[in-house]
Amino acid sequence: MADKNNSLGFDTTCIRGGHTQESNRAHLTPIYASSTYTFDNAEQAIAVFKGQEEGYIYGRWGNPTVTEAEEKIALLEAYGIKDKNGEPLQLKALLHASGMAAMCTMLLGNIKAGQKIITHYSLYGGTHELVEKILPDLGIEAMIVDFHDLEKVEEAIKADKSISLMHIETPANPTLQCVDLEALAALGKRCGLTVCVDNTFATPYLQQPFRYDVDYVMHSTTKFLNGHGTLIGGVVIGRDIEKMSKGITKTHRLLGGNSNAFEAFLLVNGLRTFGLRMDRHCSNAQRVAEFLQGNAGVEKVNYLGLVSHPDHATCKKQMKNGGAMLSFELKGGFDAGVNFINKLKMCTNAVSLGTCDTLVCHAASTTHLGVAREQRLAFGITDGLIRMSVGIENIEDIINDLQQAITTPKP
Ligand SMILES: *Cc1c(COP(=O)(O)O)cnc(C)c1O
């Protein structure tokens, strides 16, 4: 049974949270591959349509496998948090076809033409493009400010009354910048804004934005939550249950970015080992960062768990540890990056993140190949920058592979 009081441990919640016994007594929730649902009679249909009786109606509106994934994620984001009355925090999650679909529901469910959003640099590429290329045509402009500078953020909000939503992504690509969630959420709420956090990189294992005054958390479930690289998905989780159940659910259903039973099943299955996986991802990442820091072929390591990272203090304040993501600059620029990728024997050369296997990507020759060099450098994406999503393999194997692939420059 779902444990609404959330008195169980985090790993237990990963395994059991959100599960309800279905009528055929299958041990695990099956893949409900059905587009529509039946009614006993006209009266029951009326009761379900009126919301007087719980029941599924149509697959775009809801599906039992999808519900289990949503409840599990809501429990994890709320884990150990109390509401204003000292009761376990209740949250509502809506599962989507992708992280970008979740982002669209959150944005279009909260802002309208003429209103603005305030956000910062180094957003996920897709979010950045959505904000720059799609939203302006709908009459929604974005103001981009450095979220490390709280005074500037406050000035910007106070100078423009049309700003209504703050979108925060922390930590963020490519240098794992981290901004102060508590301070930004407090400022946003003090100024009457809706506050949303993209928690994809950190996950609820490392960081729970609902501990602060935020309204929404969103994820690309494609990443650590699934953990196996087997699906594309996203989720929006909200604190205001009434608004989530009405306005946001309506937006979700009408925009049509719903998830499906098969991918929800893969997500539920992946989430069972989420806590265990994250333990290993993070301890491996710390070891890899320490190894790279001492390597003669490496110019610089960006990892939040290292005291050398400029945002290490903010990370310590709001995250359990430095996480599973890091990046590093190879000495020798673009060619060193290409060489390194070609010499790897085990680590996977791919974009994305959060899978059991270690993923490595040379930004300048892949994700940012089409971006002008000056612009890419301004984002911190130097010629030899390698991004790593550290996997859960045996640490010796990861380090051995990196060691043999890094060329030490001749003195
Ligand atoms: C991947 C990602 C997204 C987009 O998610 P999709 O599932 O690819 O649509 C959004 N934010 C962050 C931080 C991501 O890493």
Radius of gyration: 22 Å
Overall 3D form: globular
Uncertain ranges: none
Instruction: Provide the CATH architecture of the largest domain.
Output: 3-Layer(aba) Sandwich
Kindly report the CATH topology of the largest domain. Answer: Aspartate Aminotransferase, domain 2
CATH homology superfamily name of the largest domain: Type I PLP-dependent aspartate aminotransferase-like (Major domain)
Trace the largest sheet across and list its strands.
Answer: 1-7-6-5-4-2-3
Fraction of residues in helix:
25-40%
Biggest β-sheet: count, sense, barrel?
A: 7 strands, mixed
Q: Kindly estimate the percentage of residues that lie in beta strands according to DSSP.
A: 5-15%
- Terminal Cα separation, in Å? 63 Å
Mean pLDDT: 95
What binds here, in terms of ligands, is: pyridoxal-5'-phosphate
Note the total helix count.
Answer: 15
What's the CATH class of the largest domain, please?
Alpha Beta
What is the total number of structural domains? 2
The helix/strand class is alpha/beta
Overview of this protein structure:
The protein is of the alpha/beta class and 411 residues long. The protein has two domains: 10-30 and 62-271, Aspartate Aminotransferase, domain 2, CATH 3.40.640; 274-405, Aspartate Aminotransferase, domain 1, CATH 3.90.1150.10. The protein has 15 helices and twelve strands. It has helices spanning 10-16, 42-50, 64-78, 99-108, 125-134, 150-159, 181-190, 203-206, 241-255, 261-271, 274-293, 312-318, 333-343, 373-378, 395-405; strands at residues 92-96, 116-119, 141-144, 163-169, 194-198, 216-220, 234-238, 298-302, 325-330, 348-349, 359-362, 385-389. The strands form two sheets. Strands 1-7-6-5-4-2-3 form a seven-stranded mixed sheet, with helices on both faces. Helix 7 links the parallel strand 4 (163-169) and strand 5. It is globular, with a radius of gyration of 22 Å. The site of pyridoxal-5'-phosphate has 15 residues, from helix 4 and helix 5. Pyridoxal-5'-phosphate is lined by residues 98-100, 124, 126-127, 169, 198, 200-201, 220, 222-223, 232, 234.
